[in-house]
Amino acid sequence: MSKLRLKIGIISLSFMSMSALVVTNAYSAIIADFPNEPIAKIQMIGTIPSLGSLITTLFVGILAMKCPKKILALFGILLTAIGGLVPIFFHSSINLLLAFALILGIGIGFMNTLSPMLLSEYFEGEERAGLMGIGTAITSLGSVVMMLGGGLLGASNWQNTYYIFLITILIFLLLLVNLPMDKIPKQTVTDKKNQSTSAPIDVLKSMSKLIFVIAGLSFFMSFIYTIYPSNLSILINHKEIGGTSTTGLVNAIGTVGGFIAGFSLKYINRVTKDKTLALGFLSLALTFLISRFSSTVLTMSIGAILSGFAMAMVMATIPYYISLKARPFEIAIAMSVFQFLNSLGGIFSPIILSWLTINPGEQAFLFGGIACVILSLIVLVTNIGKRALNQAPLDKDSLSQVQS
After folding, report:
1. Where is the Major facilitator superfamily (MFS) profile domain (predicted)?
2. For the chain, which terminal residue's Cβ has fewer other Cβ atoms within 10 angstroms, N or C?
């Protein structure tokens, strides 16, 4: 199989990453159709997919050690199609919509976890890092296409919003044709009793502690980044520089920034080298601080562009660093740990902010900016980037081959 086809197959997994947000376009119409349902319950249609993705990360790494990743990827897009398309025909209750939203999230969880696994399996070095950046760009592109397309389709009838998930048919075909039937790694870790084992708990114990440190950064990135879209409209309204349409414009500009940064990451890495992660957190800090003290749509838009760059630099670099530190048989579990902590950060973000009694809007943005500056300094002082790029994985002496 040509490298181009392989790249198309793997990168297409990223297209649906943000698709769970499509239904948020139809909130007002759904609320009107279900006047007796609590608004908070209706809003869960857009948030419960995160729970589904979180659940998926707990077992997809284990499945990837026992089953070809192509089969898991096809299963993931199939679940996404079910969760996204069936509501076209069955939408008589909010409970039904919530059930399908959960299925949708589980499917998305499969694809989000498998994408960095496959890139780590088939590509090396700068090419792998560049493709992980392109993956974040395709996520941004998919978000624009899904949100815009879903909004247009559901303009007259909110149920029609779900027709945008017909795109899953194209993604399924791309995966079917362009992903090879990969082989399951046959390496196992040797425990203290000199017995060969591939149990997930033993694989976790064998992994470099640096992997957990790097994966932990994804929790903080997700936790802090969630503050931005959750508080942007509040901040814009408070500053009296616009309303819903202005928020949508600023978000769209930020998405374009992520798209450009994702495709340029290979070249950005050549300049920033082992400082990419720290500069990514610094870029997000500037996003928060510029937006916090901004008084015009133009400066808000500059902050949004920097948020796109931050997301591409951090969320592509973290799985890349993990892939460098993990041995072949550890990749599946390591990427599951990364995606689990990433999902967990987004879920806990509003809970922790509430616990810290941080008010929405300006105070939340100031907190996000300060937190990112601290994270950037920690990454620089601890030399995480240099350690990830220079420190070799554990010696092969600790591995044993399983006989075919």
Report:
1. 5-387
2. C
